[in-house]
Structures are given as C-alpha cells and as structure tokens.
Write a structure and sequence with these properties.
Blueprint: H1 3-17, H2 19-30, E1 37-45, H3 52-60, E2 65-66, E3 71-73, E4 78-84, E5 92-98, H4 105-115, H5 139-148, H6 150-158, E6 162-168, H7 178-187, E7 207-211, E8 216-221, E9 224-229, E10 232-238, H8 247-253
Parallel strand pairs: 1-5, 6-10
Antiparallel strand pairs: 1-6, 2-4, 3-4, 4-5, 7-10, 8-9
Helix pairs in contact: 1-2, 5-6
The structure holds nickel (II) ion.
C-alpha cells in the first residue's frame, strides 16, 4: 500500500462516518478550492498494544516519521504524538491514546471486557487505522463509560478509525482566514463546536483551529440502534511555519464529539 492509498482508505471510512465532511469538501470544491489536509487524527487505547504505537505502524510503513513533540491532556487523561511525511503537502498524522491506568477501577474493568474480545494479532493489521470496532458493546457499558470519559465511550462505540480530517486554511485561496471560513460554514447550515469559542488558539499560539459539531450516526449497541456523535471536520490556520499542536486548543476541540450539547 502507498501513502496515498492509505490516506484514500482513511478518507473513505471517515466520510461514511461523517457525511458532513464530504458535503463541506464538495462545497469548497464548488468554489474552486483544492482542499489540502493539514492533519488526520486517530484515537487509541493505552493498553494491550491498541494505542499510539500500534496505530502508527501502518503510517511508518509508508514513510511517516515520528516527531519529537509529546503532548499530554491532563483533564481527559490522554497523551499524543504526531508523524510527518517527507513528501511536501502530506497531512500530518496526530495519534492520541487514553491513559487507561488512570481511569477508575470500574472503567478499567469495562474497557478490559472489550479488549478481551479483540482477536489475536488485530493490532498488527495493516488496516488498523480504519479497522473499526473489534468488540460487541452494550448501551449500558457505553453509557457508563460516557459518564467518565467521552473518549473511552467514543472508542467503545466506533473502535479504531479516523476521528477527524483537518482542512488546511492556509491552502485555501478564497478565504482570508478562519473567521471568514467559519462564517461561510455557518451560513451554509453547518454547526460549529463553540466550546471555548469557535476559534481555538491565537496567532501567538501559531495555530488557530475550529471544527464542526460531530455528525450523529446510527450505531449498533448489541442489537440496539443508537444515534451517537461520530466524527467532526476540523480547520487549521498556522502561523510562522509552526507544524506542531497546541494542547489547550485540542482539549476543547476534543469536545466536538461530546454527546452532551455545549
Ligand atoms: Ni486536529
């Protein structure tokens, strides 16, 4: 598999989960924009080789290189790293994982029940970044995890796949910045995540980001159909050649998949 094939498979899985992303992508295309991705983000579990290292392997196999930055999100009990590809114009790959050992004993036990269902060698699959959910999960377990960690509940419901793609606002030709793009999106009927303000970060942070509110899609929870927030589309404007991430901003962006409206 080449890097472009891998990214195409990720996009195909993502737009199935996130129909609004395809609509926004098409809308930008109809203005004459050629959408460039700033980064894609994936979520993992920091146990049983289902975390950052496992999700990174398929990207490293197509030439992605790990970057030295280490991020920590204390409130959400997450750590994250990112990868870059030497080919110019390639999206960065941002991978986070839940520090499962820091959760309550009950949440650890529930996640343990899910992980016990994972087939042997699952984490070695070349398609792990879009492999989906390798376990059955009930509504009761989903709800219980949601009460403690939105991230844990999201992983329980959706498994291993892209959480968001991110449009590079710098590469857009017909918008002066993020505020103008946000106005266009709202005017086109899309809802933005306004937790912490529509725009997270400042030019001083060298990164400004906004995102839509996640689509809700039908998910099977052990025979019960539930409507659950899936994934969102993100927009990033960078300054001074900064290529990293800003944890304080990402912390609020993570809330785009919160089941509770903000
Ligand atoms: Ni992001």
């Amino acid at each position: 598999m080449t890097k472009d094939e891998l990214l195409a498979r990720l996009w195909a899985d993502y737009v199935q989960m996130t129909p609004q992303a395809e609509r926004i992508h098409a809308l930008l295309g109809s203005r004459g924009e050629r959408v460039v991705n700033d980064h894609v983000a994936l979520r993992g579990l920091g146990i049983a080789d289902l975390g950052i290292a496992a999700l990174a392997r398929p990207f490293e196999a197509v030439g992605y290189v790990e970057q030295p930055a280490r991020y920590r999100f204390d409130d959400k009990k997450l750590v994250a790293r990112y990868w870059r590809h030497p080919e110019p114009g390639s999206p960065k790959v941002f991978i986070s994982e839940l520090c499962v050992g820091e959760l309550s004993a009950r949440a650890q036990a529930l996640l343990g029940e899910l992980v016990a269902q994972v087939p042997a060698d699952f984490s070695r699959r070349r398609d792990l970044p879009w492999a989906g959910r390798p376990w059955r999960v009930t509504r009761a377990i989903y709800d219980e995890l949601l009460a403690e960690s939105e991230y844990a509940a999201w992983l329980a419901a959706f498994g291993f796949r892209v959480n968001h793609f991110t449009v590079s606002v710098d590469a857009l030709a017909t918008f002066s910045g993020l505020a103008e793009l946000n106005k266009f999106l709202v005017g086109s009927g899309f809802q933005l995540n306004t937790s912490g303000g529509a725009i997270k970060g400042t030019p001083a942070d060298k990164l400004e980001q906004s995102s839509t509110r996640a689509d809700a899609i039908a998910v099977d929870l052990d025979g019960e159909r539930a409507q659950i927030p899936s994934c969102y589309y993100e927009f990033a404007k960078r300054y001074d050649g900064f290529e990293g991430f800003v944890p304080a901003s990402a912390d609020k962006i993570f809330e785009s998949t919160d089941a509770k409206p903000t």
